[in-house]
Design goal:
Largest sheet: 6 strands, mixed
Number of domains: 3
Number of helices: 12
Distance between the termini: 56 Å
Structural class: alpha+beta
Order of helices and strands: HHHHEEHHHEHEEEEEHHHH
Helix content: 40-55%
Shape: elongated
Radius of gyration: 45 Å
Amino acid sequence: MSTEDERTKLYNEVWSEPVTIVAKRYGISDNGLRKRCINLQIPLPPLGYWAKVRAGAKVPKPELPVLKVKEETIVLKNMKHEHEMEFIDISAQPIEELKKLDGLGVFTPRSREAFARWCEKIHVPKKVDPFHPLIIEYQKEIEYRKVRDKEHRFRDMFQFRDVAFYPKVKYRPDQLVLPIHVSDRQHNRACRIVDTLIKAVEELGGKVKVESHYPQREAADNAIISLFKNSFSFQMKEMMAKRRVVIASTLPEDRAHEFKPMCEKIFTGKLEIEFKRTPEYWEKNNAERVIALADSAEASLEEQLGEAFKWMVKTAQEAKIAWVIQNREEELRERERERQRTIEEERQKKLQAILAMEKRQKQLVENVEPQMTGWFKAQKLRQYADEIETYAKQVVNPEEKEALDRYIQLVRRKAEKSDPIAEIVQEIKAISVKAELP
């Protein structure tokens, strides 16, 4: 059932019957049904509506309004243009439609086109002034590491007390910075690309921060992009290639005739940036998602940054869709569990009623002999009372006759107490026994 069909159906139902009755039909609470109607923008009858209807008053019924897009907006600023990005309301869509929905399909058509244009206009300038603070911190840290490593090349050898070592640069461990691993020749270019990336993330309302996945111990450089409530890690590196090198001239004399080729890794001048999204704790059986963009003959890395943002936004929105689907499915499962609990409670009540009936029936059967004894005793007492009454009619003395009448009443009262018929009838009615007892 589509969203519009569901809206029309619920609208007709809540204006035909009270919400409490409609909610019972769907097996949910009336508050749950009200929330659903609010999400679907369905007007509900006001307080006192049904009382007025029962009184015969004519109360106007509003028409079902057109479903408005739930606006969750961000502003994209690209040069002189600004675009408000609007997202559709996916909370009211059926699960079947959500599963078919593309990550970028959460945008309204106009916003999707605006986002595509924004991605195409991402431009890496030839010169950046000033760089983003994270880039400046990275440049300072890399410069320090170069000087430190040169100064403390033999640091491990000068840890004895009898050797004096007075370095010009104080040694300290690495401070975490942006994960950019390139040669000096590609340093400026890599900084310009990452600077453009960071500023574009901030335009989308996101944030880039340098942090470690392992805060309890020293770790490698790492950065996290927070975008649309999702986290992406990324790293920039320059691709390496193996080159064979013959080093026979450096071999000892006994191996001078060995010309086994050796390999060394060299920078190629081609940059690559990799983005990675690690699944959240609530995502089940969901593998890590990765995209890598690199210089190629068709396009440079600078020209592919827009694709990176399309991938990140698409991935983030697909995670949002998955979250909504999972919550909706859990809601359906909980509703089914509640239905099963209700069925089980009813079954237990019926079972307890049957057991109680069987118990009373068993007690009734076990009391047959005492009841039989009581019955015959009552009959004998009535017969005895009848005979005394016949005798009393022949008595002439008024006082004696009055005494005998009182005695007859006592006998008949005892006969009534001994008679089990009234008790049997009441018990039979209580246990609803219609068949002949065994």
